[in-house]
Amino acid sequence: MTISLPPLREVIARHGLTASKALGQNFLLDEQLLDRIAAIPGTLKDRPVLEVGPGPGGLTRALLRAGARVTAIEMDRRCLPALAELDEAFPCQLRVIEGDALKIELAGLFDEPFAIVANLPYNVGTALFTGWLSGQAWPPRWSSLTLMFQQEVAQRIVAAPGGSAFGRLAVLAQWRSQAKLAMKVHRSAFTPPPKVMSAITHVTPGDMPAGVSARMLERVTEAAFGQRRKMLRQSLKGLPGALDALAALGIDAERRAETLSVEEFVSIARVLSQD
Ligand code: SAM
Hints:
CATH topology of the largest domain: Rossmann fold
Number of domains: 2
Bound molecules: S-adenosylmethionine
Low-confidence stretches: none
Helix content: 25-40%
Distance between the termini: 60 Å
CATH class of the largest domain: Alpha Beta
Radius of gyration: 21 Å
Structural class: alpha/beta
Order of helices and strands: HEHEHEHEEHEHHEEEHHHH
Number of strands: 9
Strand order of the largest sheet: 4-3-2-5-6-9-7
CATH superfamily of the largest domain: Vaccinia Virus protein VP39
């Protein structure tokens, strides 16, 4: 069944949704592009999806067209009437929650694993992303994260060791998940266009390495990358037991943080987690 919807430009004009800079509003209006983004998590037919920041509902439409059962959290109440129209067009598929996604507890919203899809302002997206990937409990309640970031941030998320993009974000995103760069999105695809290019990362949870405290891994990467130009001997010396752990693991203390693999960070944290 093809559902005919008014063009997004018309929806934006009719509801007076002038883009708010404060809310980081850069809208995507190209429906083909939006369908391609909605396809990144794989088949969504009858699957629960959390969309954060639906705005006028471009990505929401694409998710609904793909058959998803969408829960959308939007902070800007001006967008709610436009989203209510989508609810009419796709009965029983959309639930809209008005509020700040940074303050809403997701655990109570779903009783089965859900995919998360979002095109969010940079600061909100990064804060949510690190929150969703942190903590000891694993596997998480979400089955995948498909998130738009500034391209430079997306590259830091998927970075391999050995370069300046490799840091805490890469280790966090990769130590028990697979993170890939799914699509680059040109700035001209947005209305209004942001200053920089964007890219979508897709993250799926993997196995939790045994015997590792997530908090300890954070402490190790915080110390190591806090002084990323220094040798590990210097950057890790404030972390009790860290230099002994390097010796026990045969990791040269003269190396710098960005040369270590994710697995080596995990090994260090594992040794320190036993203390
Ligand atoms: N998803 C739409 C699209 O792709 O065209 C809108 C994207 S726009 C970049 C970001 C959206 O997130 C805006 O609608 C904004 O109001 C909303 N937003 C910003 N901060 C938010 C927050 N903390 N919680 C929920 N929504 C937020």
